[in-house]
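--- STAGE predict ---
source: upstream dedup step, 1 unique chain passed
mode: sequence only
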Amino acid sequence: MSSTGFDDRDGVIWFNGELIPWRDAKVHILSHALHYASSVFEGQRAYGGEIFKLRDHSQRLIESGRYLGFDIPYSLEEIDQAAIDVVAANGLTDAYVRPVAWRGSEMMGVATKGSKIHFAVAAWEWPSYFGEEARLKGLRLEISKWKRPSAETEPVFAKAAGLYMIASLSKDASMEHGYDDSLMLDYRGQVAEATGANIFFLKDGVLHTPTPDCFLDGITRRTVIELAKKRGIEVIERAIMPEEMADFEQAFLTGTAAEVTPLSEIGPYNFIVGDVCKTMMTDYDNLVNRR
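--- STAGE serialize ---
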């Protein structure tokens, strides 16, 4: 990964219909998205040159835009192809891929009518999100003071830029306090998710995961549920209160960037990196790498 900023790199970015030099992919300072968070995005991973569940990600991007009241001016097939072309044009095999759509600078104010929708895709090499050592030993999470909002408050089922403001605040605070990440509760005080990943817990051979009624039902989350059921592991989606974590034996995160990452600690609660965590890690790695 480059030691310079993400604006100063070699390579190309797919930008509004064409591949352009990386350093030329710029937006105006008065873009609506910068001021009013009218932007949606996806996080994808390519393994061996192939983007895992690309169609699912592209479809969710389109749906996210619609939650924010706009249509991306490209078809599902064109969005898929843009991501494929970016990975190939940059000579990448194992990579992180970032499609993003946003409102431009035609309008400045809360209202959006008349603003143009832009779309771009970038891709770059990105190693393990949390680092392999932390991934093997289990991450330490702090419980955030910020809470996931109600579905009546924000478009919580969109992968929208504005929803990540409190995630950044939570992540920064946890790292300043010596933790790897934060666990966020929701507006009711129930366990929700980490700053960029869903969460699972194990008790008596059964996996428990929060019902995604005010946060994203992640693509990796759904994949891991399928893998667990193939193993004969029961998965229960339900409301989980923080104090229940005292009785869980194992815990792990799931996400495109996080993949499957075990936890060793959440606030005052401790977990082991046990067999089920390791099995889910292995099964997911085998799936994405087609082993």
